[in-house]
From TrEMBL:
Domain FYVE-type: 229-281
Pfam families documented for this protein: FYVE (PF01363)
Acidic residues composition-biased segments: 719-729
Protein name (record): Phosphatidylinositol kinase (PIK-G2)
UniProt domain PH: residue ranges: 75-177
Keywords per UniProt: Kinase, Metal-binding, Transferase, Zinc, Zinc-finger
SMART domains (UniProt xref): FYVE, PH
GO biological process: protein targeting to vacuole; protein transport to vacuole involved in ubiquitin-dependent protein catabolic process via the multivesicular body sorting pathway
UniProt GO molecular function: kinase activity; phosphatidylinositol-3-phosphate binding; ubiquitin binding; zinc ion binding
Highest taxon above the source species: Eukaryota
Length: 736
């Protein structure tokens, strides 16, 4: 009893820390064995990858034993309440915060409700070490205490119970171990200098002169720097500055406060403009995905047990699963039924959702026109799903979208424009919209949609699983130079580590590629079959799927993907040309909107004359079971411009050529050839007829196609303050 510490009057006795002295067993297949043997074990590190009967990691086993605790492990990391204060003496008690630990990234919030959005964190740091603390303060004595060393300082921390303390220590040691192995793998690969440019958590860049990044200087502009704001600063309108870019802004466009971890000289939440805050949200999500992937790739030999997942299903979920399995086996179960089932069971168990998605993947390959018809509904279901609450369902729906993009170019472009429209709504780019009036649920869709858009482009522009991605700032993400370098480092690490795990850039002869079972079989352009490509559906999807989807979940993608001939160079040219040409048509309509209504029809021929047709420009409004219609020429003398209150809808006539079959790639071939039951049906003839402008006009007038257009032109155009009238009464109109 003499060795026990004496408790102060009115304080809580000190409890000894629970020591976990299990040996460190590293089960890893992504680094040479010699390097793993040389890897030093962290001091007092518990068992990180020890094999357990339930195939759970040590931190997951500890979390499963907590009953009635506020600390829990989610798909993104560890979260719970902690009492903490900066290291040092103090007379006040430590404050209670809700904290989240994603890999080595530590986030601190004032309440649990704020933690649903990482941008609400008032502290974002990188954990470097965890050690014991006796819990002795100047006036208080804390139980279950430990000390966290972060990039922003050292903090004294106290958990609510001994088991929660053990869980926090276990998870931190696992995350630090994974971060060290990540940096070691990156040092072995080519272009290691760019991979090692950032810290293990990716919060800051390493500079050769070891100087810390300094915030930009204030620009002192006389007016608000926001592109849609013309406020001039004076005695009645105060000038504010964004600490990330240095722009001068009004209070309406600089009301966000968030930490800037890439600027170590600034501590605490800093004022940011709306554009920089949008970049902050995107960077946070990408950084968290990288951290979750880094931590999970080192425990691939001990994934979450699927048997335990089944045993935890409630009785009603088991009954629902059996009912769904019986329903999808009905002969008349179609694509529309699967879409309705996804909506109906969006809050049921993940196993039920997996069965429906697997059936829809099979139907999408055999009934592609029906799948294309319901594609907008599927996309909006994915966009409205909260990825943190329903990460498995969110990933399964993303798999459906990425698989559809591999079927046909029309599906890929449709998904691109759906994502582009969602991003525009989240940013307030639409006519008459403002960032100040965008609801919060739309703003939250920006980061996942932007990441999915990057994943779609990397899926299309890959070459046998090899990606060469170069991040460039755009209107959506106006990044500063240091943020551009950080985002590029995140993508480089994600791509390099996945390619390393797939054996595509192995540097040692004793490398053994990992076996992943949730990626479909692909047929590269060279004719070889690579069965376990983690990059087939895009690296961002692969990173999330490897962390949240059990390896036992096998998916059927249909014969169209497995047996399709592919020509990446042609597909990439068609995809990029189609997107650029449609954007050019949209800019043409926007230019006509700035012209007075009475002069729009006269200005149309001049605008069309400036429009050049690229080689791979196709009619965008067809379906995947129809042949592609390539634009041959523009009918400059035809077409018209309608007048509405907000826009100037433009009707343009093109001469087209039907491209029935493209033998080089099935991605450009009509989908009906893969499942049509009418084998003897003759394909439509290819139309290759050239007409001059006068002949085209005679054909249009002979078929009475232009009669309604002449009627509309005879009507008085609407004023800018009049409401739109979709119905046009032609009884009082002048004859054409």
């Amino acid at each position: 009893m003499a060795d026990e510490p004496k408790a102060r009057p009115g304080s809580v006795p000190v409890l000894h820390t629970l020591l976990l002295d299990d040996p460190l067993v590293i089960s890893r297949n992504s680094a040479p064995a010699a390097l793993i043997e040389e890897l030093p074990s962290p001091a007092s590190s518990p068992s990180v990858y020890s094999v357990s009967p339930s195939n759970f990691t040590a931190s997951e086993q500890l979390a499963s034993n907590l009953v009635g605790s506020t600390t829990e492990i989610t798909s993104f990391g560890l979260c719970g309440f902690l009492n903490m204060r900066e290291n040092g003496p103090g007379i006040h008690r430590m404050r209670r915060y809700y904290c989240r630990l994603i890999g080595v990234l530590f986030y601190r919030f004032f309440s649990k409700e704020q933690s649903r959005d990482l941008s609400n964190a008032h502290m974002e740091a990188e954990v470097q070490k965890i050690e014991e603390w006796d819990g002795k303060g100047m006036m208080h004595l804390y139980r279950n205490a430990f000390r966290l060393t972060t990039s922003h300082g050292v903090f004294n921390v106290a958990a609510d119970s001994e088991k929660e303390k053990a869980l926090w220590k276990q998870y931190v040691n696992e995350a630090i171990e994974a971060a060290q192995l990540q940096m070691r793998d990156a040092a072995l690969l080519a272009h290691s200098q760019s991979l090692l440019a950032a810290s293990p958590g990716g919060l800051t860049l390493f500079r050769s002169n070891k100087e810390k990044e300094k915030p930009p200087k204030f620009k002192g502009q006389p007016t608000c720097a926001h592109p849609k704001c013309t406020v001039r600063f004076d005695n009645t309108k105060r000038q504010h500055h964004c600490r990330n870019c240095g722009d001068s802004l009004c209070s309406d466009h600089s009301y966000h406060f968030a930490p800037l971890p890439h600027l170590p000289t600034l501590s605490g939440p800093q004022r940011q403009c709306t554009r920089c805050f949008r970049v902050h949200r995107f960077t946070q999500l990408l950084r968290c995905i990288l951290q979750v992937f880094v931590k999970n790739r080192h425990q691939r030999n001990s994934p979450r047990s699927t048997t335990l997942r089944h045993s935890r299903m409630a009785t009603e979920d088991v009954a629902i699963l059996q009912t769904v399995k019986e329903a999808i086996n009905e002969p008349d179960f179609g694509v529309s039924d699967a879409i309705q089932a996804l909506h109906l069971h969006r809050k049921d168990s993940d196993e039920v959702y997996r069965v429906i998605v697997q059936k829809l993947l099979s139907l999408s390959a055999t009934h592609m026109p029906d799948f294309e018809f319901f594609l907008p509904q599927l996309f909006h279901l994915w966009a409205s799903t909260e990825y943190e609450l329903y990460i498995v369902k969110w990933t399964l729906l993303l798999r459906l979208l990425m698989t559809a993009a591999m079927y046909h170019v029309r599906l890929a472009t449709s998904i691109h424009w759906l994502m582009r429209a969602t991003i525009d709504d989240a940013c307030g780019w639409g006519f008459g919209q403002s960032e100040l009036n965008i609801p919060e649920y739309l703003k939250n869709r920006f980061a996942p949609c932007k990441l999915a858009l990057f994943n779609l482009h990397m899926l299309v522009y890959q070459n046998d699983g090899q990606h060469n991605f170069k991040f460039q700032p755009d209107e959506d993400l106006r990044t500063m130079p240091i943020q551009t370098d950080l985002i590029q480092t995140y993508f480089d690490r994600l791509l390099a580590l996945q390619q390393y795990d797939e054996g595509q850039n192995a540097v040692t002869p004793d490398f053994v590629p990992s076996s992943t079972h949730f990626f479909p079989v692909s047929t590269p352009s060279n004719g070889s079959v690579r069965s376990n490509s983690a990059l087939l559906l895009g690296p961002l999807y692969a990173a999330v799927a490897s962390c949240v989807l059990p390896p036992s979940w096998n998916f059927d993608t249909g014969n169209r993907v497995r047996l399709s001939p592919r020509l990446p160079s042609l597909e990439q040219s068609v995809f990029s040309t189609q997107l650029r040409f449609i954007d050019r048509l949209g800019k043409l309509a926007e230019a006509l909107r700035g012209v007075t209504p009475v002069s729009r029809k006269e200005a149309l021929p001049d605008q069309l004359a400036q429009l050049t047709l690229p080689e791979y420009a196709y009619y965008p409004l067809g379906t995947c079971d129809e042949p592609l219609r390539r634009f041959v020429s523009i009918c400059i003398k035809e077409g018209t411009v309608f007048t509405t209150k907000a826009r100037a809808p433009t009707l343009i006539w093109f001469e087209v050529e039907n491209m029935q079959n493209v033998p080089e790639t099935l991605w450009l071939t009509p989908a009906q050839a893969t499942y049509s039951h009418v084998e003897n049906e003759a394909p439509p003839q290819t139309l290759q007829t050239a007409l001059n402008h006068d002949e085209i006009g005679q054909v249009l007038r002979h078929d009475n196609i232009m009669s309604s257009l002449h009627t509309i032109e005879a009507l008085q155009p609407l004023n800018d303050d009049e409401e739109d009238d979709e119905s046009v009464d032609g009884t009082d109109a002048l004859p054409p």
